[in-house]
Specification:
Blueprint lengths: L4 H14 L4 E5 L2 H12 L3 E7 L6 E6 L13 E3 L8 E2 L13 E6 L2 E4 H7 L3 E7 L1
């Protein structure tokens, strides 16, 4: 039984980066698809593909590395809000990750977005994770 699917998603990506894998497969859900789209739009992953195989489908993510130094684009992934302790912030209290160099992925009433987009639209929500 899986109690926190978002933490599982982040752990699979983190482990694939530490093992220098190019591609990681993750069981799909709507929230995971939204997080993947945000990571792609902000340039943290190279590409992604949603595959409809099995009962729930799979997300196939191509991880991004620097071409010369082989340093991953994602240096740190940290889960903030957990099922046991949800972390909500209003528009005025939105977090800044590494003084704006990283992003916080938020689940808002207008969908999953970064902290910068939420500040721009003046909405708050649940802080899902930090990416730097």
């Amino acid at each position: 039984m899986q109690s926190d699917p978002i933490a599982d998603y982040l752990t699979r990506v983190r482990n694939a980066i530490k093992a220098n894998h190019r591609i990681v497969d993750i069981p799909a859900s709507n929230i995971k698809k939204s997080i993947t789209k945000v990571l792609f739009e902000k340039g943290y992953i190279l590409n992604y593909k949603f595959e409809d195989e099995g009962p729930q489908g799979t997300i196939r993510i191509a991880l991004k590395y620097h071409p010369v130094t082989k340093i991953p684009a994602i240096r740190d992934l940290k889960r903030v809000s957990t099922p046991g302790l949800r972390q909500y912030r209003n528009a005025k209290e939105l977090p800044r990750v590494i003084n704006g160099l990283g992003i916080a992925i938020m689940s808002t009433s207008r969908g999953v977005m970064t902290d910068k987009e939420a500040r721009k639209e003046n909405v708050g929500g649940e802080v899902l994770c930090y990416v730097s």
